[in-house]
């Protein structure tokens, strides 16, 4: 049991479902969480659709006190607290109101936090109303606000911090928590990431013209990873959270175990050799995957499925090439591969953590979840992967080892290797 790290709790606040049951059923059934957004239309966005969690049936008093809810105007904080507290409860852990839990900490990442609150603050300051900002303006807009909220709510006395690495943030956070437990500096770590929603987050991508513009009247068809007709990623938001724990601690507590983390790797392409602020250095991607495999103590042929980054851009075929080169596998020998962005879009800094929750759920369901909108598999991908390895619908398959990777702006990469749990 020494130094083994397992997953004992998960929570999610995603465009296609809040809570593990709703989220899991959506992935099983291929139910899209992408919707038309009236505010984007009113602001004349070219892309007027997005994946945004619906909070209309969520009682926020189950997650926040009345004092905390006063003036709360950060969707990222709300999503992150929902996912984080649900994961903590799912692991059989509870809020510690009287003392500190010195053995537990949190690494919860974000790309940008409290955009709407920051906008409100700018207007008040410019109008000379600085005293009307309120006492929560700082904590809602500082990047580490989400980990501060969760650390305080749960009474965590170990490391409480926030990471930020663009779209690889969530996967990187998981590896940071994994390494802290592996080195015996903590017994449990709540890990994950969140992303704000709304036009002030998504506007820059719309201006870059990398979002699909021709699907405003058919949003469920817009996100098309690995498709020949892909026209760009659909923006999304939300949060995912996992409780990582030493196997020794999990066994002592007698709790359920969703899976095990064998290892992983993070690196950067240095924006060299084809890498840039917005594109990956392919050699770095390959090296990241190979380093993750080596760190996990497995062979490449042990991986039986992949959850890719795969955003529905022209880079999808290149990503498949990189996976094939890293694993030295192609055709029918290529692992099953899917992209959950087909169902809920690209949730930016939250994407890695939300997708990791979905990846691990495949162990529980003994399935590989399907890919929406991929009937017309890109011809360059067809040259590398057998059609059957890119399932259109959920299939029965009992994965033993799944690789999950995320790649972010700034030419940064993260790859984690999950294993189904066995004694």
UniProtKB/TrEMBL annotation:
Keyword field: Acyltransferase, Cytoplasm, Transferase
Residue span, Ketosynthase family 3 (KS3) domain: 2-420
Keyword match Ribosomal protein: no
InterPro entries found in the cross-reference section: Beta-ketoacyl_synthase, Ketoacyl_synth_C, Ketoacyl_synth_N, PKS_Beta-ketoAc_synthase_dom, Thiolase-like
Matches recorded under PROSITE patterns: KS3_2
A Pfam family per the record: ketoacyl-synt
SUPFAM superfamilies reported in the protein's UniProt record: Thiolase-like
Known EC number: 2.3.1.41
Keyword Cytoplasm attached: yes
Protein family: Belongs to the thiolase-like superfamily. Beta-ketoacyl-ACP synthases family.
Assembly and binders: Homodimer.
The protein, known as: 3-oxoacyl-[acyl-carrier-protein] synthase 1
Organism, as annotated: Flagellimonas spongiicola
